[in-house]
Amino acid sequence: MNRTTGASSPEGQAATNLEERWQRRLDRACAHGAEALLAWAELLESAGWCVALRLGSGDLWLGSRGADDLARRGGKAESWTDLLTQWQHLPEARRHLEGSGVRVWAAESPVGDEAGKQANLTPREGEVLKWLKQGKTDPEIAAILGCAVRTVEKHVGNLYRKTGARNRAEMILQGREDE
Amino acid sequence: MTPYRDISDARARRIDRTMFGLAACRSLAELEQQFLAESGKILPADCLCWNDWAPDWSQMLGCRSNEQHDAWLAGNHEVFNHYVAQHPVLAANPISATARQVMRMSDYQSVGEFRENNAFYREVYRHLGFLYQVSYTVASLDDHKVILSWSRGLVDFSDADVQVFHLMGQRLGALSHRVAEVERLERDWQALCGFVNGRLPAGPVEGLRPADTRLLTQLLRKRTPAAIARELGVRRDTVDRRLGSIREQLGLENQRQLLSALAELGATCGPGEIQ
Description:
The complex is a heterodimer of chains A (179) and B (275). Chain A folds into two domains: 11-106, no CATH class; 113-177, Orthogonal Bundle (Arc Repressor Mutant, subunit A). Chain A contains eight helices and four strands. Chain A has helices at 13-46, 64-72, 80-89, 113-119, 123-133, 138-145, 149-163, 168-174, and strands at 49-55, 59-62, 95-98, 102-106. In chain A, helix 6 packs across helix 7 (149-163). Chain B is an alpha+beta fold and 275 residues long. Chain B folds into two domains: 9-185, Beta-Lactamase, CATH 3.30.450; 201-264, Winged helix-like DNA-binding domain superfamily/Winged helix DNA-binding domain (Arc Repressor Mutant, subunit A, Orthogonal Bundle). A five-stranded antiparallel sheet of chain B has the order 2-1-5-4-3, with helices on one face. In chain B, strand 1 (46-54) and strand 2 (63-65) form a beta hairpin. The relative contact order of chain B is 0.11. At the A-B interface, helix 1, strand 1, strand 4, helix 4 and helix 8 of A face helix 1, helix 7, helix 8 and helix 11 of B.
Protein backbone atom coordinates (compact mmCIF):
# COMPACT_ATOMS: atom_id res chain seq x y z
CA MET A 1 0.00 0.00 0.00
CA ASN A 2 2.78 2.34 0.89
CA ARG A 3 4.58 3.47 -2.17
CA THR A 4 7.92 4.75 -1.01
CA THR A 5 10.87 4.97 -3.28
CA GLY A 6 13.35 2.19 -2.53
CA ALA A 7 14.91 2.79 0.86
CA SER A 8 17.37 0.02 1.42
CA SER A 9 20.53 1.97 2.17
CA PRO A 10 21.45 2.01 5.86
CA GLU A 11 21.67 5.78 5.94
CA GLY A 12 18.11 5.96 4.69
CA GLN A 13 16.95 3.88 7.63
CA ALA A 14 16.22 6.76 9.99
CA ALA A 15 14.25 8.52 7.31
CA THR A 16 12.37 5.31 6.56
CA ASN A 17 11.31 4.89 10.15
CA LEU A 18 10.02 8.42 10.16
CA GLU A 19 8.25 7.68 6.90
CA GLU A 20 6.60 4.53 8.23
CA ARG A 21 5.45 6.15 11.42
CA TRP A 22 3.93 8.92 9.37
CA GLN A 23 2.19 6.51 7.02
CA ARG A 24 0.70 4.63 9.94
CA ARG A 25 -0.75 7.79 11.41
CA LEU A 26 -2.15 8.68 8.02
CA ASP A 27 -3.67 5.23 7.53
CA ARG A 28 -5.40 5.48 10.87
CA ALA A 29 -6.79 8.92 10.13
CA CYS A 30 -8.27 7.81 6.84
CA ALA A 31 -9.53 4.38 7.89
CA HIS A 32 -12.96 5.73 8.74
CA GLY A 33 -14.35 5.82 5.20
CA ALA A 34 -13.42 2.22 4.56
CA GLU A 35 -14.95 1.16 7.86
CA ALA A 36 -18.38 2.54 6.96
CA LEU A 37 -18.27 0.78 3.59
CA LEU A 38 -17.20 -2.50 5.13
CA ALA A 39 -19.99 -2.35 7.69
CA TRP A 40 -22.58 -1.91 4.95
CA ALA A 41 -20.99 -4.58 2.81
CA GLU A 42 -21.41 -7.04 5.66
CA LEU A 43 -24.99 -6.00 6.19
CA LEU A 44 -25.86 -6.47 2.52
CA GLU A 45 -24.05 -9.79 2.60
CA SER A 46 -26.29 -10.86 5.49
CA ALA A 47 -29.30 -9.70 3.52
CA GLY A 48 -28.40 -12.11 0.73
CA TRP A 49 -26.44 -9.98 -1.72
CA CYS A 50 -23.03 -10.71 -3.09
CA VAL A 51 -20.77 -7.77 -2.36
CA ALA A 52 -17.23 -6.88 -3.38
CA LEU A 53 -15.27 -3.83 -2.31
CA ARG A 54 -12.03 -2.39 -3.48
CA LEU A 55 -9.82 -1.48 -0.54
CA GLY A 56 -6.49 0.27 -0.76
CA SER A 57 -4.57 -0.13 -3.97
CA GLY A 58 -6.21 -3.08 -5.63
CA ASP A 59 -6.96 -5.10 -2.49
CA LEU A 60 -10.23 -6.93 -2.66
CA TRP A 61 -12.87 -7.52 -0.01
CA LEU A 62 -15.16 -10.29 -1.10
CA GLY A 63 -17.80 -11.73 1.19
CA SER A 64 -18.20 -15.48 1.52
CA ARG A 65 -21.51 -15.39 -0.37
CA GLY A 66 -19.85 -13.60 -3.27
CA ALA A 67 -16.91 -16.01 -3.23
CA ASP A 68 -19.30 -18.98 -3.22
CA ASP A 69 -21.27 -17.53 -6.07
CA LEU A 70 -18.16 -17.03 -8.17
CA ALA A 71 -16.93 -20.52 -7.29
CA ARG A 72 -20.26 -21.98 -8.42
CA ARG A 73 -19.57 -20.43 -11.81
CA GLY A 74 -16.08 -21.87 -11.75
CA GLY A 75 -14.51 -18.47 -11.14
CA LYS A 76 -12.29 -17.06 -8.48
CA ALA A 77 -11.20 -13.55 -7.56
CA GLU A 78 -8.14 -12.66 -5.56
CA SER A 79 -7.75 -9.06 -6.52
CA TRP A 80 -10.01 -6.29 -7.69
CA THR A 81 -8.84 -6.79 -11.28
CA ASP A 82 -9.85 -10.47 -11.07
CA LEU A 83 -13.25 -9.43 -9.87
CA LEU A 84 -13.73 -6.99 -12.74
CA THR A 85 -12.99 -9.84 -15.15
CA GLN A 86 -15.54 -12.06 -13.40
CA TRP A 87 -18.03 -9.22 -13.40
CA GLN A 88 -17.99 -9.21 -17.20
CA HIS A 89 -19.27 -12.77 -17.18
CA LEU A 90 -22.19 -12.12 -14.85
CA PRO A 91 -25.57 -11.93 -16.55
CA GLU A 92 -26.79 -8.36 -16.86
CA ALA A 93 -29.88 -9.04 -14.78
CA ARG A 94 -27.86 -10.03 -11.74
CA ARG A 95 -25.70 -6.95 -11.64
CA HIS A 96 -27.25 -4.47 -9.27
CA LEU A 97 -24.65 -1.88 -8.37
CA GLU A 98 -21.64 -0.93 -10.38
CA GLY A 99 -19.54 1.67 -8.59
CA SER A 100 -15.90 2.49 -9.16
CA GLY A 101 -14.87 0.44 -6.15
CA VAL A 102 -18.04 -1.32 -5.07
CA ARG A 103 -20.04 -4.05 -6.79
CA VAL A 104 -23.25 -5.68 -5.68
CA TRP A 105 -24.83 -8.57 -7.47
CA ALA A 106 -27.53 -11.12 -6.73
CA ALA A 107 -26.54 -14.70 -6.08
CA GLU A 108 -27.82 -17.38 -8.36
CA SER A 109 -31.00 -18.46 -6.61
CA PRO A 110 -30.50 -22.03 -5.46
CA VAL A 111 -33.53 -22.26 -3.19
CA GLY A 112 -36.93 -23.43 -4.38
CA ASP A 113 -38.58 -25.33 -1.55
CA GLU A 114 -38.31 -22.55 1.00
CA ALA A 115 -40.10 -20.12 -1.26
CA GLY A 116 -42.79 -22.71 -1.85
CA LYS A 117 -43.32 -23.03 1.86
CA GLN A 118 -43.82 -19.28 2.13
CA ALA A 119 -46.36 -19.28 -0.68
CA ASN A 120 -48.59 -21.65 1.29
CA LEU A 121 -49.97 -18.87 3.46
CA THR A 122 -53.70 -18.27 3.23
CA PRO A 123 -54.79 -14.75 2.24
CA ARG A 124 -55.90 -14.03 5.80
CA GLU A 125 -52.56 -15.20 7.23
CA GLY A 126 -50.83 -12.95 4.71
CA GLU A 127 -52.82 -9.99 5.99
CA VAL A 128 -51.98 -10.81 9.59
CA LEU A 129 -48.30 -11.06 8.68
CA LYS A 130 -48.47 -7.71 6.89
CA TRP A 131 -49.80 -6.00 10.03
CA LEU A 132 -47.34 -7.84 12.25
CA LYS A 133 -44.58 -6.32 10.15
CA GLN A 134 -46.01 -2.88 10.85
CA GLY A 135 -45.48 -3.53 14.53
CA LYS A 136 -49.16 -3.98 15.42
CA THR A 137 -50.09 -6.08 18.44
CA ASP A 138 -52.58 -8.96 18.28
CA PRO A 139 -55.51 -6.90 19.67
CA GLU A 140 -54.74 -4.10 17.23
CA ILE A 141 -54.72 -6.52 14.31
CA ALA A 142 -58.02 -7.98 15.55
CA ALA A 143 -59.53 -4.48 15.50
CA ILE A 144 -58.16 -3.76 12.03
CA LEU A 145 -59.37 -7.04 10.53
CA GLY A 146 -62.60 -6.94 12.44
CA CYS A 147 -62.25 -10.34 14.06
CA ALA A 148 -61.60 -11.73 17.54
CA VAL A 149 -58.21 -11.57 19.19
CA ARG A 150 -58.32 -15.37 19.54
CA THR A 151 -58.67 -15.68 15.77
CA VAL A 152 -55.62 -13.53 15.24
CA GLU A 153 -53.71 -15.63 17.77
CA LYS A 154 -54.72 -18.72 15.82
CA HIS A 155 -53.46 -17.20 12.57
CA VAL A 156 -50.19 -16.25 14.25
CA GLY A 157 -49.88 -19.79 15.57
CA ASN A 158 -50.28 -21.12 12.02
CA LEU A 159 -47.72 -18.60 10.79
CA TYR A 160 -45.21 -19.90 13.35
CA ARG A 161 -45.83 -23.43 12.16
CA LYS A 162 -45.62 -22.61 8.46
CA THR A 163 -42.54 -20.40 8.62
CA GLY A 164 -40.75 -22.43 11.25
CA ALA A 165 -39.85 -19.23 13.05
CA ARG A 166 -39.11 -19.25 16.74
CA ASN A 167 -40.27 -15.71 17.44
CA ARG A 168 -41.95 -12.80 15.70
CA ALA A 169 -38.68 -11.11 14.82
CA GLU A 170 -37.59 -14.19 12.89
CA MET A 171 -40.97 -14.43 11.23
CA ILE A 172 -40.70 -10.85 10.01
CA LEU A 173 -37.18 -11.38 8.70
CA GLN A 174 -38.25 -14.52 6.84
CA GLY A 175 -41.48 -13.15 5.50
CA ARG A 176 -39.91 -11.02 2.82
CA GLU A 177 -40.82 -13.35 -0.05
CA ASP A 178 -44.54 -13.30 0.11
CA GLU A 179 -45.54 -9.74 -0.73
CA MET B 1 15.29 8.06 -0.85
CA THR B 2 17.34 11.04 0.11
CA PRO B 3 18.38 10.88 3.71
CA TYR B 4 17.54 14.20 5.26
CA ARG B 5 20.98 14.79 6.63
CA ASP B 6 20.81 18.53 6.89
CA ILE B 7 17.42 18.76 8.53
CA SER B 8 17.23 18.52 12.29
CA ASP B 9 14.79 16.00 13.77
CA ALA B 10 12.78 18.77 15.31
CA ARG B 11 12.38 20.45 11.97
CA ALA B 12 11.42 17.23 10.24
CA ARG B 13 8.80 16.63 12.90
CA ARG B 14 7.48 20.15 12.49
CA ILE B 15 7.12 19.59 8.76
CA ASP B 16 5.42 16.26 9.40
CA ARG B 17 3.00 17.91 11.78
CA THR B 18 2.13 20.66 9.34
CA MET B 19 1.67 18.23 6.49
CA PHE B 20 -0.34 15.89 8.63
CA GLY B 21 -2.74 18.76 9.24
CA LEU B 22 -3.67 18.46 5.57
CA ALA B 23 -4.79 14.86 5.94
CA ALA B 24 -8.36 15.99 6.61
CA CYS B 25 -8.76 17.30 3.05
CA ARG B 26 -11.59 15.70 1.12
CA SER B 27 -10.36 16.32 -2.40
CA LEU B 28 -7.12 16.78 -4.29
CA ALA B 29 -8.06 20.34 -5.22
CA GLU B 30 -8.58 21.19 -1.55
CA LEU B 31 -5.33 19.48 -0.65
CA GLU B 32 -3.45 21.53 -3.19
CA GLN B 33 -4.99 24.75 -1.98
CA GLN B 34 -4.19 24.00 1.64
CA PHE B 35 -0.70 22.90 0.73
CA LEU B 36 -0.04 26.15 -1.08
CA ALA B 37 -1.26 28.04 1.96
CA GLU B 38 0.98 26.07 4.32
CA SER B 39 4.10 25.69 2.22
CA GLY B 40 5.13 29.31 2.59
CA LYS B 41 5.19 28.89 6.35
CA ILE B 42 7.52 25.92 6.23
CA LEU B 43 9.97 27.66 3.98
CA PRO B 44 9.39 31.15 2.68
CA ALA B 45 9.37 30.82 -1.10
CA ASP B 46 6.78 31.06 -3.82
CA CYS B 47 5.26 27.74 -4.62
CA LEU B 48 3.60 26.66 -7.84
CA CYS B 49 1.77 23.45 -8.52
CA TRP B 50 1.79 22.28 -12.14
CA ASN B 51 -0.18 19.61 -13.97
CA ASP B 52 -3.28 19.58 -11.75
CA TRP B 53 -3.00 15.95 -10.63
CA ALA B 54 -3.63 14.74 -14.15
CA PRO B 55 -3.00 11.06 -14.88
CA ASP B 56 -0.23 11.93 -17.35
CA TRP B 57 1.67 15.07 -18.19
CA SER B 58 -1.03 16.47 -20.44
CA GLN B 59 -2.06 19.14 -18.00
CA MET B 60 1.40 20.60 -17.61
CA LEU B 61 -0.11 23.98 -18.30
CA GLY B 62 -2.53 23.83 -15.46
CA CYS B 63 -1.00 25.72 -12.64
CA ARG B 64 -1.91 27.10 -9.25
CA SER B 65 0.23 29.26 -7.12
CA ASN B 66 0.13 30.86 -3.76
CA GLU B 67 0.49 34.21 -5.49
CA GLN B 68 -2.76 33.96 -7.47
CA HIS B 69 -1.21 34.65 -10.82
CA ASP B 70 -2.36 31.37 -12.32
CA ALA B 71 -4.99 33.08 -14.48
CA TRP B 72 -2.19 34.66 -16.42
CA LEU B 73 -1.38 31.38 -18.16
CA ALA B 74 -4.90 30.79 -19.33
CA GLY B 75 -4.47 32.35 -22.77
CA ASN B 76 -0.86 31.44 -23.30
CA HIS B 77 -0.91 27.70 -23.79
CA GLU B 78 0.66 27.68 -27.22
CA VAL B 79 3.55 29.87 -26.27
CA PHE B 80 4.01 27.94 -23.12
CA ASN B 81 4.11 24.63 -24.94
CA HIS B 82 6.81 25.99 -27.15
CA TYR B 83 8.94 27.15 -24.29
CA VAL B 84 8.45 24.36 -21.86
CA ALA B 85 11.32 22.40 -23.38
CA GLN B 86 13.65 25.33 -23.04
CA HIS B 87 13.57 25.35 -19.32
CA PRO B 88 17.08 24.31 -18.33
CA VAL B 89 15.89 21.64 -15.93
CA LEU B 90 13.41 20.17 -18.37
CA ALA B 91 15.95 20.39 -21.17
CA ALA B 92 18.41 18.32 -19.15
CA ASN B 93 15.91 15.79 -17.79
CA PRO B 94 12.63 14.29 -18.81
CA ILE B 95 9.85 15.62 -16.61
CA SER B 96 9.48 12.27 -14.92
CA ALA B 97 13.06 12.48 -13.64
CA THR B 98 11.99 15.18 -11.24
CA ALA B 99 10.05 12.49 -9.42
CA ARG B 100 13.28 10.98 -8.18
CA GLN B 101 15.15 14.01 -7.06
CA VAL B 102 14.77 17.67 -6.43
CA MET B 103 16.15 19.69 -9.29
CA ARG B 104 17.83 22.91 -8.44
CA MET B 105 17.93 25.21 -11.40
CA SER B 106 21.27 26.72 -10.55
CA ASP B 107 22.82 23.26 -10.92
CA TYR B 108 21.90 23.34 -14.60
CA GLN B 109 22.23 26.95 -15.63
CA SER B 110 23.33 30.08 -13.92
CA VAL B 111 20.70 32.59 -12.97
CA GLY B 112 22.13 35.21 -15.26
CA GLU B 113 21.99 32.90 -18.25
CA PHE B 114 18.47 31.82 -17.47
CA ARG B 115 17.19 35.35 -17.29
CA GLU B 116 19.11 36.24 -20.38
CA ASN B 117 17.85 33.32 -22.48
CA ASN B 118 14.27 33.02 -21.39
CA ALA B 119 12.16 36.06 -21.87
CA PHE B 120 9.17 33.79 -21.53
CA TYR B 121 10.02 32.55 -18.06
CA ARG B 122 10.81 36.08 -17.00
CA GLU B 123 7.21 36.74 -17.82
CA VAL B 124 5.90 33.58 -16.11
CA TYR B 125 7.65 34.37 -12.90
CA ARG B 126 7.39 38.11 -13.06
CA HIS B 127 5.06 38.33 -10.09
CA LEU B 128 7.39 36.31 -8.00
CA GLY B 129 10.51 38.36 -8.47
CA PHE B 130 12.24 35.03 -8.94
CA LEU B 131 15.92 34.38 -9.36
CA TYR B 132 16.30 30.84 -8.16
CA GLN B 133 14.10 27.82 -8.58
CA VAL B 134 13.83 24.26 -7.48
CA SER B 135 11.28 21.76 -8.63
CA TYR B 136 10.14 18.35 -7.59
CA THR B 137 7.46 16.02 -8.82
CA VAL B 138 4.96 14.51 -6.51
CA ALA B 139 3.82 11.30 -8.08
CA SER B 140 1.26 9.59 -6.00
CA LEU B 141 -0.22 6.28 -7.00
CA ASP B 142 0.84 6.03 -10.59
CA ASP B 143 -1.88 8.17 -11.88
CA HIS B 144 -1.86 11.55 -10.23
CA LYS B 145 1.02 13.79 -11.05
CA VAL B 146 1.85 17.24 -9.94
CA ILE B 147 5.06 19.18 -10.21
CA LEU B 148 5.92 21.55 -7.45
CA SER B 149 8.24 24.35 -8.13
CA TRP B 150 9.47 26.88 -5.67
CA SER B 151 11.14 30.09 -6.58
CA ARG B 152 12.57 33.00 -4.74
CA GLY B 153 14.95 35.87 -5.28
CA LEU B 154 18.28 36.86 -3.80
CA VAL B 155 19.42 33.65 -2.10
CA ASP B 156 19.73 30.32 -3.84
CA PHE B 157 18.29 27.22 -2.24
CA SER B 158 20.73 25.44 0.06
CA ASP B 159 21.09 21.65 0.37
CA ALA B 160 18.98 21.76 3.50
CA ASP B 161 16.24 23.61 1.60
CA VAL B 162 16.36 21.02 -1.13
CA GLN B 163 15.92 18.30 1.47
CA VAL B 164 13.01 20.16 3.02
CA PHE B 165 11.35 20.26 -0.39
CA HIS B 166 11.97 16.60 -0.91
CA LEU B 167 10.44 15.80 2.45
CA MET B 168 7.44 18.01 1.75
CA GLY B 169 7.06 16.47 -1.68
CA GLN B 170 7.18 12.96 -0.26
CA ARG B 171 4.59 13.83 2.31
CA LEU B 172 2.38 15.52 -0.22
CA GLY B 173 2.67 12.45 -2.42
CA ALA B 174 1.60 10.18 0.43
CA LEU B 175 -1.18 12.56 1.36
CA SER B 176 -2.48 12.79 -2.18
CA HIS B 177 -2.49 9.03 -2.37
CA ARG B 178 -4.63 8.97 0.73
CA VAL B 179 -6.87 11.84 -0.28
CA ALA B 180 -7.51 10.22 -3.66
CA GLU B 181 -8.42 7.07 -1.75
CA VAL B 182 -10.76 8.99 0.53
CA GLU B 183 -12.36 10.66 -2.49
CA ARG B 184 -12.93 7.29 -4.11
CA LEU B 185 -14.30 5.80 -0.91
CA GLU B 186 -16.66 8.75 -0.64
CA ARG B 187 -17.94 8.10 -4.16
CA ASP B 188 -18.36 4.40 -3.43
CA TRP B 189 -20.10 5.26 -0.19
CA GLN B 190 -22.58 7.50 -2.03
CA ALA B 191 -23.20 4.75 -4.57
CA LEU B 192 -23.77 2.16 -1.86
CA CYS B 193 -26.07 4.49 0.09
CA GLY B 194 -28.05 5.11 -3.08
CA PHE B 195 -28.40 1.37 -3.55
CA VAL B 196 -29.53 0.82 0.03
CA ASN B 197 -31.84 3.84 0.11
CA GLY B 198 -33.53 2.58 -3.03
CA ARG B 199 -34.42 -0.68 -1.31
CA LEU B 200 -34.87 0.13 2.34
CA PRO B 201 -38.37 1.43 2.99
CA ALA B 202 -37.07 3.95 5.52
CA GLY B 203 -35.26 7.25 5.76
CA PRO B 204 -31.79 7.89 4.34
CA VAL B 205 -29.04 5.75 5.80
CA GLU B 206 -26.15 8.17 5.28
CA GLY B 207 -26.20 9.27 8.89
CA LEU B 208 -25.70 5.82 10.40
CA ARG B 209 -22.33 5.11 11.94
CA PRO B 210 -20.45 1.90 11.19
CA ALA B 211 -21.29 0.64 14.68
CA ASP B 212 -25.01 1.16 13.96
CA THR B 213 -24.67 -0.73 10.71
CA ARG B 214 -22.97 -3.64 12.45
CA LEU B 215 -25.82 -3.73 14.94
CA LEU B 216 -28.32 -3.97 12.08
CA THR B 217 -26.26 -6.80 10.60
CA GLN B 218 -26.63 -8.70 13.86
CA LEU B 219 -30.40 -8.16 13.78
CA LEU B 220 -30.55 -9.38 10.23
CA ARG B 221 -28.72 -12.53 11.31
CA LYS B 222 -31.64 -13.13 13.65
CA ARG B 223 -29.85 -12.29 16.87
CA THR B 224 -32.13 -10.91 19.53
CA PRO B 225 -31.16 -7.64 21.21
CA ALA B 226 -30.45 -9.63 24.38
CA ALA B 227 -28.05 -11.94 22.55
CA ILE B 228 -26.34 -8.96 20.90
CA ALA B 229 -25.90 -7.28 24.27
CA ARG B 230 -24.31 -10.45 25.66
CA GLU B 231 -21.93 -10.74 22.72
CA LEU B 232 -20.86 -7.14 22.86
CA GLY B 233 -20.56 -7.23 26.62
CA VAL B 234 -22.86 -4.25 27.09
CA ARG B 235 -26.17 -3.87 28.88
CA ARG B 236 -29.43 -4.72 27.17
CA ASP B 237 -30.47 -1.12 27.82
CA THR B 238 -27.58 0.17 25.79
CA VAL B 239 -28.46 -1.95 22.78
CA ASP B 240 -32.10 -0.86 23.03
CA ARG B 241 -31.12 2.78 23.23
CA ARG B 242 -28.88 2.48 20.19
CA LEU B 243 -31.62 0.70 18.27
CA GLY B 244 -33.96 3.50 19.31
CA SER B 245 -31.67 6.14 17.90
CA ILE B 246 -31.26 4.15 14.68
CA ARG B 247 -35.05 3.93 14.32
CA GLU B 248 -35.32 7.63 14.91
CA GLN B 249 -32.77 8.37 12.20
CA LEU B 250 -34.56 6.09 9.77
CA GLY B 251 -37.95 7.50 10.70
CA LEU B 252 -39.37 4.16 11.82
CA GLU B 253 -41.79 3.78 14.68
CA ASN B 254 -40.98 0.47 16.25
CA GLN B 255 -38.67 -2.49 16.25
CA ARG B 256 -40.83 -4.63 13.99
CA GLN B 257 -40.93 -1.95 11.34
CA LEU B 258 -37.14 -1.86 11.53
CA LEU B 259 -37.01 -5.62 11.06
CA SER B 260 -39.41 -5.64 8.14
CA ALA B 261 -37.46 -2.79 6.54
CA LEU B 262 -34.32 -4.91 6.90
CA ALA B 263 -36.17 -7.87 5.42
CA GLU B 264 -37.07 -5.75 2.38
CA LEU B 265 -33.38 -5.10 1.88
CA GLY B 266 -32.94 -8.77 1.10
CA ALA B 267 -31.86 -9.89 -2.34
CA THR B 268 -34.89 -10.19 -4.57
CA CYS B 269 -34.11 -13.44 -6.32
CA GLY B 270 -33.19 -15.61 -3.35
CA PRO B 271 -34.49 -15.89 0.18
CA GLY B 272 -30.95 -15.28 1.36
CA GLU B 273 -30.57 -15.87 5.04
CA ILE B 274 -33.03 -18.74 5.33
CA GLN B 275 -31.14 -21.94 5.91
